[in-house]
Design a protein that fits this description.
Blueprint: E1 2-19, E2 25-44, E3 49-53, H1 67-79, E4 84-89, H2 101-116, H3 124-130, H4 134-139, E5 143-147, E6 151-154, E7 162-167, H5 174-179, H6 201-207, H7 210-219, E8 224-229, E9 236-240, H8 243-253, E10 259-264
Parallel strand pairs: 3-4
Antiparallel strand pairs: 1-2, 2-4, 2-5, 5-6, 7-9, 7-10, 8-9
Helix pairs in contact: 1-2
The structure holds cytidine-5'-monophosphate.
Pathway: Isoprenoid biosynthesis; isopentenyl diphosphate biosynthesis via DXP pathway; isopentenyl diphosphate from 1-deoxy-D-xylulose 5-phosphate: step 3/6
GO molecular function, one term: ATP binding
EC number: 2.7.1.148
Length: 266
């Protein structure tokens, strides 16, 4: 049995540069990863099975359209390896801008790679076909993403930086948020992510105004540095200068009914 953590993905900045003829958008984004996430367990088995557990498991179906089973099918088509029993412990909210299904798919590929001696480097083309964020999640370390987000350039991250993720409990459709982007190119990714933006914040806030409340509450937290929405939302994050101020923010925000994850960047 191989266990892989599907680390939550953050976009420390996300600049949308153009709409593409293929319906996707040209991005420049700074990916970072959080130490915690969903947990994927894979073991060889007589027959394929897929079990979903965890606090957010009930929101998913085990049917064929799940990215985990699609990743496993794509792996087998390419590398063989037989049948597997796969368990997904869904600890992170779904459709929430922090990787979710993409991270689960990448963790599944990594686990299958360990079981069958396939290096991560050999699986990027499969990852690319599974979704725009899957290559970044397969890489699993800080990187700048260009193109759809799949062209990766490794960068030094902020390992150990305390982070708080907050989701107000509304699922937001990535496709709809991109569709509502106003088409204005506001310029490239700066070297310092604090000078950057998430261009998907305005369209996501129009769909889910509660994102404003989350961003405001995080910005008002003592010791919070960078405060931003991740991906297409609705999860927002704050980076903190120390663990004590992060944990104080958790206490201050408790009682608002929001999902929170106190963790650190890897
Ligand atoms: O690649 P993935 O299937 O995860 O993307 C989900 C949706 O998000 C796409 O169908 C598209 O509408 C939107 N998207 C986009 N531009 C990107 C990535 C995603 O428009 N670079």
């Amino acid at each position: 049995m191989v266990t892989e953590i599907a680390k939550a993905k953050l976009n420390l900045a996300l600049h949308v540069r153009a709409r593409r003829p293929d319906g996707y958008h040209e991005l420049e984004t700074l990916f970072a990863f959080v130490a915690d996430g969903d947990v994927v367990q894979v073991e060889p088995s007589e027959a394929d099975s897929f079990t979903i557990t965890g606090p957010f498991g009930a929101l998913l179906s085990g049917e064929g359209d799940n990215l985990v089973t699609r990743a496993a099918s794509a792996f087998r088509e390419r590398f063989g390896g037989g049948a597997h029993a796969i368990t997904l412990d869904k600890r992170l909210p779904v459709a929430s801008g922090i990787g979710g299904g993409s991270a689960d798919a990448a963790a599944t590929l990594r686990a299958l790679g360990v079981l069958h001696g396939v290096a991560v480097d050999e699986m990027f083309d499969i990852a690319d076909r599974l979704g725009s964020d899957v290559p970044a999640c397969l890489f699993g370390r800080s990187a700048i993403g260009r193109g759809r987000g799949e062209q990766l350039e490794p960068v030094a991250g902020l390992p150990g930086m305390p982070v708080l993720l907050v989701n107000p409990g509304v699922g937001v459709s990535t496709a709809e948020v991109f569709r509502r982007w106003d088409g204005v190119d506001r310029g490239p990714l700066p070297v310092d992510p604090r000078a950057g933006r998430n261009d998907l914040e305005p369209p996501a806030r129009a769909i889910a105004p509660v994102i404003d409340d989350v961003l405001e509450a995080l910005a008002a937290s003592q010791g919070a540095g960078l405060v931003r929405m991740s991906g297409s939302g609705a999860t927002c994050f704050a980076l903190f200068e120390d663990v004590a101020s992060r944990d104080a923010a958790v206490e201050a925000l408790a009682g608002r009914g929001w999902w929170m994850l106190a963790s650190y960047l890897t």
